[in-house]
Amino acid sequence: MRYLRGIYIIWLREVIRFFREKTRIVGMLGQPLLYLLIVGNGLAATFKVPDAPPGFSYVQFMYPGILGMAVLFTSIYSAISIVWDREFGFLKEVLVAPVPRWTVAVGKALGGSTVAVMQGTIFILLAPLIGVALSPLMVLKLMGVLLVMAFAITSLGITIASRMETMEGFQMIMNFLIMPLFFLSGAMFPLRGVAPWMETLMRLDPLTYGVDALRNIMYGDTPLRDFLVQFSLGLDLLVVAAMALLFVGTGALAFNRQD
Amino acid sequence: MSDAVIQVENLVRKFKDLTAVRGVSFQVARGEVFGFLGPNGAGKSTTIKMLATLLKPTAGRALINGYDVVRQQDRVRRSIGLVFQDPSLDERLTARENLFFHAMLYNVESRVFKRRMQEMVEMVELTDRLNDPVKYFSGGMKRRLEIARGFLHYPQVLFLDEPTVGLDPQTRSKIWEYIHALRQRENITIFMTTHYMEEAENCHRIAIIDHGEIVAMDTPANLKKLVGGDIITILTTRAGEMADRLAERFGLRAAGQGNILRVEVEQGEAFIPLLVREMGEDIKSVTLHKPSLDDVFLKLTGREIREESVSAVDRIRVFRRGRRR
Ligand SMILES: Nc1ncnc2c1ncn2[C@@H]1O[C@H](COP(=O)(O)OP(=O)(O)OP(=O)(O)O)[C@@H](O)[C@H]1O
Ligand SMILES: [Mg+2]
């Protein structure tokens, strides 16, 4: 009970704060839309995908990738807000309270992923506008995968942010961790056809499996499956779930440590 | 002394090669107001953080409410409340939400919370601001809300780290009114730090701390006796003659130059009427200076406590601290 209480409080605060930040909602929603409309259309016009089956459009390929991106950035942003919490003191108030510290990490991860999934869901609901057809069941499955992905990424962010004293390190993490994770995930271009060293890196990027899971759900039953999907849904889910477990563990450990 | 609610033995805290707290020992009785008085960087906040389980002691032992701050952290946390030196409210939330989250964290039952919240915000006069986001509060209002929050969950021991720093004198004395009223009613023990001398006067006992060590510990009145009695300065027309009469009549040795005489007595306010009755016709004016804790600090450490008069050594320390960041 005590554990649930700690987790619930931190989660609730995260969600309340999200709804207070109108600019954040707009910004986080606008970014993936921009990517999809500008980059997606631009690339679609420039690149001719070789041996593309009939009925393929680049937007179909990119849409799940952008969905993954939206969740990635939102999750990282939520996690990094720990640094603000520390600077503006709220974290101290929580750390002297009689709730176990690891519940703070878990609550934060759940809060961050809730927010990320809310944004992902809005993005999913926009799918018909860009010609992607989704059934209600697909939407639920997508939300489930997004939740686990977001939980894993927020937990990773929390692990890193728990040692960060100032926001100055944020740009470093964006440039050297988050952007590479994103570009190597197959969100923007497919694994097949890239140089072998790059393919290895892409196979090592856990996010690759998250994005692939989304494609599995959306295109698993269509003729495009063999062209768009890399791995089996089972493998994808296994990797994403393992990532979530691993990082929530490191996040909780990082929080439990006392100076 | 098992009735002591705070027991500290040889507490030490090092940060790399800097020893912020160098083996402090003290005990605080239940219901007592105990204060740490010392200049910037003396180790006051570091001590509080160790007692509140935010920092691990490098050596030594501390018990709060009978619980060890290293091995029984959860029990210690349930026993204490803490008002941090730096702000710790969530600015995006309203005052009510801040209090609500606090109550949840400390598992205050919701019925109890509602009553207690009303009582606390009434005390700090924020009832009509309960639903406003904290970011629109003034500094004094935020501080009052933090103090209300500290009392919200009925702590046994409340730590106040420079509770009134940066507030105007009216607000400061108001805050002390609340604190004293609540302490008496609920028998809460208060551990506070300050570098305001006047504020230290609110304590039953004070430890003067400098460079991580306790250099003196006693009641404010007894500490002041360390510097001697009250100083009476007399402006007179016949200094020489009066000095003789003071020696003869009261056994006092007067110092002074020109037409000013200075004598040290134990109870200045009681002595002045006697003085005036005996030799009023020769006196033009009398001033009484009661020794302050400033004088005590100066005497014990050779330095003034206030920031305005940092010594050269302090300035170098501040400079180094700035560069280390
Ligand atoms: N986390 C830390 N890492 C390194 N040094 C620290 C840390 N916290 C405090 N110190 C150092 O320990 C010493 C004591 O600091 P502390 O905050 O306890 O002083 P203080 O008495 O509360 O001062 P003030 O009146 O300015 O609040 C200072 O020299 C400070 O620089
Ligand atoms: Mg301090």
UniProtKB/TrEMBL annotation, chain A:
Membrane topology, record value: Multi-pass membrane protein
Domain of life: Bacteria
Keywords assigned by UniProt, alphabetized: Cell membrane, Membrane, Transmembrane, Transmembrane helix, Transport
Main location: membrane
Cell location: Cell membrane; Membrane
Pfam families named in the record: ABC2_membrane
Claim: Transmembrane helix is one of the keywords in the record: yes
A cellular component term, taken from the record's GO annotations: ATP-binding cassette (ABC) transporter complex
Transmembrane intervals: 25-49, 61-84, 105-130, 142-161, 173-195, 227-255
Keyword Transcription regulation listed: no
GO terms of molecular function: ABC-type transporter activity
Signal sequence range: none
Domain ABC transmembrane type-2 per the UniProt entry, residue ranges: 23-258
InterPro entries hit by this protein: ABC2_TM, ABC2_TM_bact-type, ABC_2_transport, Daunbcin-R_ABC-transpt, Nod_factor_ABC_transporter
Family membership noted in the UniProt record: Belongs to the ABC-2 integral membrane protein family.
Name by which UniProt lists this protein: Transport permease protein
Organism: Desulfoscipio geothermicus DSM 3669
TrEMBL record, chain B:
The entry's keywords: ATP-binding, Cell membrane, Membrane, Nucleotide-binding, Translocase, Transport
One Gene Ontology MF term: ATP binding
Cellular component annotations (GO), alphabetically ordered: plasma membrane
Membrane topology type: Peripheral membrane protein
Localization per Swiss-Prot or TrEMBL: Cell membrane
Keyword Aminoacyl-tRNA synthetase on entry: no
Pfam family, one: ABC_tran
PROSITE patterns reported for this sequence: ABC_TRANSPORTER_1 (PS00211), ABC_TRANSPORTER_2 (PS50893)
SMART domains linked: AAA
Span of domain ABC transporter: 6-236
GO BP terms in the entry: daunorubicin transport; doxorubicin transport
InterPro entries assigned to the protein according to its UniProt record, in alphabetical order: AAA+_ATPase (IPR003593), ABC_transporter-like_ATP-bd (IPR003439), ABC_transporter-like_CS (IPR017871), DrrA (IPR005894), P-loop_NTPase (IPR027417)
Claim: Cell membrane is one of the keywords in the record: yes
NCBIfam families per record: drrA (TIGR01188)
Family stated for the protein in its record: Belongs to the ABC transporter superfamily. Drug exporter-1 (DrugE1) (TC 3.A.1.105) family.
Annotated protein name in UniProt: ABC-2 type transport system ATP-binding protein
Species per Swiss-Prot/TrEMBL record: Desulfoscipio geothermicus DSM 3669
